[in-house]
# Entry
Amino acid sequence: MAIGSGTSARNIGIWGYSTAENAGIRGQSMLDDYLGRSLSALGQGRTDLRENYLGAIDRLNPWVSAGTSALGTYQGSLGLGGDAARDDAVAKFRASPGYEYKVAQGTDAVARKASALGALGSGNTMTAIADYNRNEADQDYGNWQSQLQGLSDRGQQAATAQSSLQGQLGSSLASLGATEAGLYGGYGQMGLNNLWNATNTGIGAVLGQSKQATDNVNSGASLWANVLGSGVNLLTGLYGNGGKK
# Structure
C-alpha cells in the first residue's frame, strides 16, 4: 500500500510538470502572436507615415523648383553672375507676355500718331518707338524683379517647410524604431519570465510530489515496522516465557 501511494504521488508530480510545460508552451505561443501582431501594426504605421510625409514633401516640389529658377534669374537681373547672367535676365524680361504686350501697345500708339502726321516711316518715328521701348516698357523691369523676388521667397518657404517635414519624419521614424526595440526587449523579458515560471512550477510539482511519495513510503514502512514489532512482542510474550515450563 505504501509503495503504491509513493508511485501515485510521483505520477502526480510528473503530470504537474507536464502541465506546467504545456502552459509554458502556450504562453510562448501567445507571446509570439503578440509580437507578430505588434510588429505588423508597427510596420503598417511606418509605411503610412512615410507615404503621408513624402506625399506632403513632393507637393511642395513645384514651389521649390519655381523658387530656385526665380532666384537665379533675379540674381542675374541684379548683375550677379556677370554680364552673361544679366543679359539672360533682361532677355527673359523682354520675352515676358506683359512686356511684349506693352511694347506692342506703345509701338502701335506711336505709329498711329506718326501716321496722322504723315511721318510713319521716318527716322524720327523709329527713334520714338525705340525710346518708348527703352523708357516706358522698361519701367516695369523693377516690378518684374519684385515678382521674381516674391517667387523666390515662396520657394524658400516651401524648402523650409520640406526641411521641417523631413525632420518630423525622421523623429517619427526614430520613435517607431525605439518602439520596435522596446517590443523586442519586452518580448525577450516576458519569454524569459514565462520559461522561468513554467520551469519552476514544473520542478516544484515534481519535488513536492517526490517528497510526498517519500513521506508515503516512509509512513508505510513505519506502519509495517510497527506491525511487525507488535507481532514480535506478542510472540515473545506468548512463547518466550512459555518455553520454560
Observations:
- The chain is about 90% helix and 0% strand.
- The longest helix spans residues 141-240.
- Residues 2-233 form one domain.
